[in-house]
Amino acid sequence: MNLPFGSWPSSITAHDVAAGTKPLGGACFNGERIIVQEGRPAEGGRITLVEYDRNGENSKELIDAPFNVRSRVHEYGGASWILIEEEPARIIFANFSDQRVYSLTLGQSEPTVLTPQSLVDGDPKLRFAEFTRGPENTVVAIMEDLRAEPVRHIVAIPLNGSAASDLSKIRVLSAPARFVAAPRLSPNGQKLSWISWEHPNMPWDSTRLHLAQLTDEGILASRVIAGGEEESVMQPEWLDDDRIAFISDASGWWNPYVYQDESSRTTRLVDRPAEFAGPLWQVGTRWYVVENPHTLLCSYGTGTKSLARVHSATGGLDAIELPFTGIRPLALKDSWLLAGTSSMTEGEQITLINLETLEHSEITRAIGDLPDPAMLPDVEEFECKNLAGQSVHALLYRPAQADLTGVEGELPPFVTFVHGGPTSQANPTLSATVAYYTSRGIGVVDVNYGGSTGYGREYRNRLRGSWGVVDVADTVAVINALVGQKIADPARIGIEGGSAGGWTVLCALTFADVFTAGISRYGVSDLVGLVQDTHDFESQYMFSLVGPYPEAADLYEKRAPINHVSKISCPVLLLQGDEDKVVPPAQSQVVADALAERGIAHAYILFEGEQHGFRKSENIVRALESSLAFYAQIFRFETDAPGIELS
Q: Which of the chain's termini has less CB crowding within 10 Å, N or C?
């Protein structure tokens, strides 16, 4: 059947996208059962832990409301819980509202608090994350201290509750650093390793791997065994009491290495143009697990991520063939691997894999009710050249629905997705949001512009000093290639993105003329405001993306879309959370005010109770339906989404 692109009837609704999607985090084994971190969009985005049997059945929620298992370390959090299996088995977790650490004995309903209250005007000034079993009835963790100048330490928290009212009971193990992550104890408990970095670096720019002998007194004296300027070290893991594995991009690609303490020798295990790690936006992110002292199970690749066994003594890599577009190892027990996986038909899920037979089964998945396969698009890894002759990567999703095509002679409208970060990556997987568009006859292209991870340090560094220039030029190059190949209708090209992606959207609408509509979700518009008003983790991120501030103040003014709104000539939709600390609402408000003053068609929707990213299901629904209605109004096609009024 032939129907106009954009007007195809679809069984995928915004409610399906929101209510049917639960964010998945880490997972671990608990005897013969499995514990998984899951989000609850219908509960305001609350994060909880759910236990399953090995068939993914007989689920039991372990952390009851109002507790919310979510850390705010670096604002992005991560690694907010750990299972301690010794009797009595218990879960140690950070609670979102007060950022205190709690201990919950399995089988009980009320947790015990382990760290003191630190609220100032309702904001927790002590935050904890990335717990690991410590010596003498403690857990080792990151402690973020915001009571004065921000500082982070590796600390040991007693499990007996003595620190709940006495901060001095928490032992500080590491010297103060602006940022720390990845605390790891050697198997014999005698050595501690961790990574640190300082402003203005981000963890993908420069980190240092520390090693210290664990003592009973004072702050540990550490030495740096890897990392430095222009080298990013990620995820140290002990192989035995003498050898520690880690990922370094010293070669230009994040590849695995091993450091032997006794001989002070570092060995590169794999030499290939593939990434074995990614950007450390959330502490505790893992890209491999130690299988035994001789082998690692690693995720690696560029666009699609695969699983491999890396040999820690001899080097080399054995690929493990599995039918996933992405995989990240989470936990290992005997010959069973728990992994976060993704595919174009199942989406994101927690998967149990038998490493001997490679049989695998789903424990749980992010998408509750999978869409009708007839509604799902295929993905193409798209590559083109920018004006400088450099390769630009993207993921292409053409309009797709079984038995439906567009009207003869008509090219489809396209929506350009711009990922956040900007140091991040769009990965191939089933996306209900993508299918929401493509099943209606709207194409989607997800651009991995220069600056994205996944393609080596040189590709990542292309954005240095050029944010708002390279990302826009690369995105425009992709659109020009799609139009030149007659894949997309040049008169109906939308662009949307959140956070840093929202910045690229606003820059593209300001400094390029290929887009006919744009949607910014909590997007950056004013660089000076961002530098002066954002959180500590990203407060000097702009120094590498644009230039040092205030020395480069003129460049900040020149780049910021808010200073050039007069150049925007197409309609704009602004979506913003009113509690966003990363990109405050003022960033969207100034754009809305300027568009109104210029008489440019726009709408500004402020979502109550939302922070950086929308977690409440009703807001996810409204944002998505508003986006579709916005495109329908601008691109002139029929839609079933509630209308939106443009000013």
A: N
In the three-class reduction of DSSP (H, G, I as helix; E, B as strand; rest coil), residue 19 is classed as: helix
> In terms of residues, how long is the chain?
647
Tokens of 58: 């007989």
What is the pLDDT at residue 1?
A: 86
Spatial distance between the Cα atoms of 164 and 117, rounded to a whole number of angstroms = 8
Give the contacts of 409 (CB within 8 A, at least 6 positions apart): none
Most confident of 115-129, 238-252, 575-589: 238-252
Dihedral sign (CA 462, 203, 559, 556): negative
Write the burial class of residue 106 (CB in 10 Å: 0-12 exposed, 13-18 middle, 19+ buried): middle
Give dist(CA 153, CA 351) in Å, integer.
Answer: 34
Angle at 184 between CA 259 and CA 358, to 5 degrees: 80
Contact indicator for 505, 568 with CB cutoff of 8 Å: no
Enter the pTM of the model. 0.91
Q: Are 249 and 232 in contact (CB under 8 A)?
A: yes
Look at residues 505, 480, 459, 473 and name the one whose alpha carbon lies nearest to residue 627: 505
3-state secondary structure of 511: helix
Closest CA to 239 of 154, 296, 286: 296
Q: Which helix (H) or strand (E) holds 268?
A: strand 265-268
pLDDT for residue 600 is more than 80 = yes
Counting Cβ atoms within 10 Å, is residue 295 exposed (0-12), middle (13-18) or buried (19+)? Answer: middle
DSSP one-letter string for 354-403: ETTT--EEEEEESBSSPPPGGGPPP-EEEEEE-TTS-EEEEEEE----TT
Distances, alpha carbon 587 to alpha carbons 377, 530, 534, 584, in Å: 34, 8, 11, 6
With helix as H, strand as E and coil as C, how does 460-490 read?
HHCCCCCCCCHHHHHHHHHHHHHHHCCCCCC
- Residue 581: pLDDT over 90: no
Q: For strands 46-52 and 33-40, give the pairing.
A: antiparallel
Least Cα distance to 366 among 349, 341, 346, 351 occurs for 349
Matching residue, tokens 């295990």:
269
Q: Which residues contact 122 (CB under 8 A, 6 or more apart)?
A: none
Type and span of the H or E element at 349: strand 349-354
Q: Please give the order of strands across the beta sheet that includes 360-365.
A: 326-333, 336-342, 349-354, 360-365
* Kind of pairing between the strands at 119-120 and 233-238: unpaired
Pairing of strands 326-333, 317-320: unpaired
What CA–CA distance (Å, rounded) separates 596 from 603? 9
Please state, as a whole number, how many other Cβ atoms lie within 10 Å of the Cβ of residue 218: 9
Per-state percent for the chain, helix, strand, coil, to nearest 5: 20, 35, 45
Handedness of CA 172, 175, 180, 182 (dihedral sign): negative
Helix (H, G, I), strand (E, B) or coil at 86: coil
